[in-house]
Each structure stands twice: as C-alpha cells, then as structure tokens.
C-alpha cells in the first residue's frame, strides 16, 4: 500500500513538472539521468504557469497535501504573489464531489427517507468545497418558527482510506528522518507526525467539530470581536453537521471590506487579540485560521467582528506551556534576551549545559532586527529560518504539542499582512500578555484560586475533624513502624559490612595459604587455609 501511494505521489509531482522547482545547481547528473529515464512521467502541463501546476498537483494528491497548500497560501513573503493567489483557491474551491451523492449521505446519516422531510430546500450545488468536506445550503423545518437558513457539512466519501495511506507514508518518512538525518532526534519527526495524525483524523469526526464550535461560541458569547455560528447538535453525526448559515464577507476579499468602510486597522488588531484571548484566557484556540475559514460581519463595519467556521482543528495548552509562552513573548517584546535564554534552559527545551551567554547572543542576533517595524517590513519566514539555525546550533528540541500553535501564528501573520500591513504586532500583543501575566501572580491570582477551589473546600470542611482525629490516632503507630523500619535497615547494613569484611579476610588468607603452599611450608599453609574457610563460611552464613 505504501509503495503504491509513494509511486502515485512521485508520478503526480513529475507529471505536473514540479521537479523544475529544484534549481539546476542542486540536481546532480545522476538525478537528471534518472528523471530523463522516467520518460512516461513527462510534464503534461508545461503550458501552465508554475503556480497553477503547484495547486493542481496538491489538489490531486488529497487532503494532507491540500492543507500544506492552504498554509503556504498565507506566506506571501515567501512565495510569488501569483503562486499564493493560486494556492488560496485550495481554501474553499477544491473540486467538489456530486451533490446527489452528498444528499444520499445526509439522508443515510439522519435516517431520512427523503431529504425534504427535514430540509424543504436543499441545494445540490455546494457552497464551498474543501479538502475533507463540502457544504450545501438548505432551509430546515422549525417547530416553533420559520424555516431556518442552514448549511450542511458532509465528509467526502472514501477520504479516510486516502488519509491513512498518506499518514502511513509520513510515518515511514519520519522513521527514516529520525534515524538517518543529522537533526533527526532533535526535530522529533515521529512525535510531530503522531500529533498531525491525531489532528487530521479528528477532522473526520464532525461530532467532535460540532462540540468544538459549541465551546468556542460559549467562550465568545458576548464578544464584539468574534462570532461562532449556532450548531444544531441534535442533527450532527460523525459525517454530517448542520449549523446556522452566515452571510459575511470573506476576510481575503479586501476590496469588499474596504468598499463597505471597514476599519481595517481595528480589524487587524482584533485578529491578534482574538488569537491571544483563545490561547491564554481560554486555553482553547481555533487552529485552522486560514482565510477560507474566516469571514467578517457585514454589520457595523466601523466596529468589525470576525465570524469563524470550520472548528475541526483546535489546540489546547496546559498551564505550564501558557506561562512559559507568555513570559517568552513579554521578554521578547522587552528585548530581554537573557531571560528568553534562561526560560529555555529552565523549561528543559535546551540542554542544561548550554552556555547562557552564547544562547542569549544568538537570540539577539536573530530577533533584534525585527523590532520597531511595521508588519509589512518584517519577514517572519526569514526569522523562522534563522531561529531554526539557532535551534540546530544549540540542540533545541522541537515540541510537538506546540506545532498547532506555531502553524496558527503563521496564519495570523499572513492574515494581518493582508488586512493592514502597517500593523505593529508587538505593540498590539504586548499589553494583553502583560495583563494576563499580572493576573497569574500576586493577590488577584491568589483570590481567584480561592474562589475556584471554594466548592471543593466547602465539601471537605465538615470532614476535617474526623480526618484530623484519624491522622492523630495513626501518627504514633506510623512513627513506631518507621522507627522499626529504620532499625531493620541499620541492622541490615551492619550485616552487609560484616559479610564484606569476612569475604576480604577469606580472600586474603587464601592468597597467603597459596604462597605458603608454593614455598613448601605445608603445615602453615594448612592452618591459614583453615582460617580462610572459616571466614568464607562466616561471609556466607552471617
């Protein structure tokens, strides 16, 4: 199975001429000869621009590759504009599967004899088609009101098999990378692939996505910054999800946003604030924030609000990761590179014997040039490459649990670059993080912990006298047992020491007896040998 899929991937890349992306200087003669020998895999789209070829190749390879193209489409500082524009089509313009097939899947999932029993209107033409699912517009019958405008999301048929095949190849490649590449152990490719496996397989469960959307909606229920559509949870299945239809402007449609008078600066700032709120306040963040999943409300353009859909991928962070990240961000913003280096050491992400001064100097070299510049002048892609070199130099390990966060940060940067290139990312994020850190320490944090734990202590308080009495009652017994155990350990040590001395005595006397025997002093040798036997017996039986 893996060999067949590997051949299919190579065949697709070659038939779309993507081998031309490798510079001639990096193609030795044997690679060029091998390419020419595969004459049946010639470039069949030589008349198309490279951007179109790249999009079509990724699209034909399936969801794992489409998601790679989605992320690359936001990196306009790394790719030519025409390439990024083509890859942006992968966000919601993937080739759909037939609407009739989607209708059958919906009827089967919801147990309907006809889709019109529940949805009087259903559009066979999908509204959008993505790598794993597509959505159809419909009107749903309501018992206590007019029909509701909804969208129905349907998982592509047979997609799980294709994903599992690609994941098997990725597992094999990760195993080889971990074993043979110089940075294999540090980069932890197997752990990263395992994290990606969990993420993409979770996307195949629309009931999980529905639960994620409900949680995010609750977190931002009264927010002016983000709106999550209502999910009809009773009509959600593992391969079908029904949710409220929204009528927003795609965040990538800059002209439409400007035409309605949207405050672009405020919109960009709110994007950053929404991300950091999800990460640090809620520990639950939308981790697939490419432009195809983000819309802007048509209401109050001077006070713009985001609309988020497709909550299949979410990330979570524990309290230690949040604290570590927040302190690192604030230290970066304050240009306190010494603290950044020390935080890396304290977290165990770099070896304990790392020279702090050298690490601090390396971080300063990478990060100092990016400050006090608008977002348009900062290339985070180049910064990441430099940080990668620094990580390699200091043997810093990749943290798989942060892969989703890192990917989301890339999306946020790409989104901010498109909306308002003059945005000062640091100035926007720093106050939020400083405020969050202040809430985690001092009297306010202590009071918050007391309030959160009050129900627990209120439940345990009536039991405290009984528990205290039991502890006091058991204390003398436990002390006696501890004393007895310590005495037994001391006696055991004394016995071991006596055995060791007896063994040394037996060995020494045996050597002396051998020397006397070799010199002909038989009587003395016999006496000493008898003593050696005595000490040996004492060492065994004492």
Automatic annotation (TrEMBL):
Residues 89-343 form the ABC1 atypical kinase-like domain. Pathway: Cofactor biosynthesis; ubiquinone biosynthesis [regulation]. Pfam families: ABC1. The keyword Kinase applies. The chain crosses the membrane at residues 523-541. Keywords: ATP-binding, Cell inner membrane, Cell membrane, Kinase, Membrane, Nucleotide-binding, Transferase, Transmembrane, Transmembrane helix, Ubiquinone, Ubiquinone biosynthesis. It is a single-pass membrane protein. It comes from the Bacteria. InterPro entries: ABC1_dom (IPR004147), Kinase-like_dom_sf (IPR011009), UbiB (IPR010232), UbiB_bact (IPR045308), UbiB_kinase (IPR050154). Its main location: membrane. The keyword Cytoplasm does not apply. Its EC number is 2.7.-.-. It is an enzyme of class 2 (transferase). ATP binds at residues 127-135, 153. It is found in: Cell membrane. The active site is at 288 (proton acceptor). Belongs to the protein kinase superfamily. ADCK protein kinase family. Is probably a protein kinase regulator of UbiI activity which is involved in aerobic coenzyme Q (ubiquinone) biosynthesis. This is Probable protein kinase UbiB. The gene is ubiB.
